[in-house]
């Protein structure tokens, strides 16, 4: 009886021990869409749920490609570009909401962010190309079709119209960020609480935190002149980080470097900055805000950036100068 009593006591103590958490599984996957590579890293306890979540997130990217791509003739955005100068074009609530957000960013940035930059991207050779140096008359003609005030939205009829011919929307400055946000929502709807989502490495969202790093997902901002070096390391937890860099797409002509980050007010690539990284609640916000900070510079960014956002700038000086705005 004594031995039995000891055994029962041991079993009682064992049953009172806290249950060990299930082992976390890690899944990585990527897909090419919208002219970029979208990748995810996520953690969970059920592989089937992880795989289902990834499938849902990637389907969102493919869906948005069908809606936003200006390389696809059958996309909703291409239909707007094709007909909006002739007549009002009725669009889906989703596209109307996205265009409304773009115009608000244009107003807040004094026109430095502008989704109507399409004609300039073409004349500078960045549309389906690596760039070319246009003549000033070419730039002037293209600039005549640029300006967010030429995009007329009617909320009652949910239509888009252009004020004149020659206007063309380019989603390059907003599409990746919006796609990342939609991927995040798809993952959440599938019960995922820990994931890192990246669009080409330039728009990133850290959902929750990986099990080994409760402070968040570790990400690095690369040196704008040397991809092997890091200028800043940080952690993202339910936040986005987007970077606009002159190194992403550029060409050299007559000894001068021209990047794809266009100043829609002048018609020329923006000088003075090498890269700008923005941390904000949504990737839509961080990607859109990086453009005016790049174009308008440190002083403007310090005055206009929302207080709960952070900006990291690398300026093009004699020596690369990188620092947080605040």
Gyration radius, to the nearest Å? 24 Å
Biggest sheet layout: 8 strands, antiparallel
CATH architecture of the domain at 81-172: Orthogonal Bundle
Report the end-to-end length measured between terminal Cα atoms: 72 Å
Q: The CATH topology of the domain at 81-172 is what?
A: T-fold
Structural class: alpha+beta
What topology, given as strand order, has the largest sheet? 1-2-6-7-10-15-16-17
CATH homologous superfamily label of the domain at 81-172: ApbE-like superfamily
Strand proportion, as a percent range, falls in: 25-35%
> Total strand count, please?
17
CATH C-level class of the domain at 81-172 is: Mainly Alpha
Continuous helix count: 8
């Amino acid at each position: 009886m004594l031995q039995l009593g000891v055994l029962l006591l041991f079993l009682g103590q064992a049953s009172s021990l806290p249950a060990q958490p299930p082992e976390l599984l890690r899944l990585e996957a990527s897909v090419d869409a919208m002219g970029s590579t979208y990748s995810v890293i996520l953690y969970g306890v059920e592989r089937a749920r992880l795989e289902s979540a990834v499938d849902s997130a990637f389907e969102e990217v493919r869906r948005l490609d069908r809606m936003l791509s200006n390389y696809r003739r059958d996309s909703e955005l291409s239909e707007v570009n094709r007909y909006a100068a002739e007549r009002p074009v009725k669009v889906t609530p989703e596209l109307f909401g996205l265009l409304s957000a773009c115009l608000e960013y244009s107003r807040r940035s004094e026109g430095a962010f502008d989704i109507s930059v399409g004609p300039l991207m073409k004349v500078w050779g960045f549309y389906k190309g690596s760039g070319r140096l246009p003549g000033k008359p070419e730039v002037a003609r293209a600039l005549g079709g640029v300006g967010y005030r030429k995009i007329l939205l009617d909320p009652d009829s949910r239509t888009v119209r252009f004020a004149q011919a020659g206007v063309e929307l380019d989603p390059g400055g907003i599409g990746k960020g919006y796609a990342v946000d939609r991927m995040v929502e798809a993952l959440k709807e599938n019960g995922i609480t820990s994931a890192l989502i990246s669009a080409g490495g330039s728009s990133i969202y850290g959902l929750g935190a990986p099990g080994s790093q409760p402070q968040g997902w570790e990400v690095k901002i690369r040196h704008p002149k040397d991809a092997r070096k890091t200028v800043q390391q940080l952690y993202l937890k339910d936040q986005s980080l987007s970077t606009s860099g002159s190194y992403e797409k550029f060409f050299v002509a007559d000894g001068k470097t021209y990047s794809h980050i266009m100043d829609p007010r002048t018609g020329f690539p923006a000088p003075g900055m090498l890269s700008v990284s923005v941390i904000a609640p949504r990737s839509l916000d961080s990607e859109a805000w990086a453009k005016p900070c790049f174009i308008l510079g440190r002083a403007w960014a310090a005055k206009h950036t929302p207080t709960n956002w952070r900006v990291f700038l690398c300026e093009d000086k004699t020596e690369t100068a990188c620092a947080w705005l605040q």
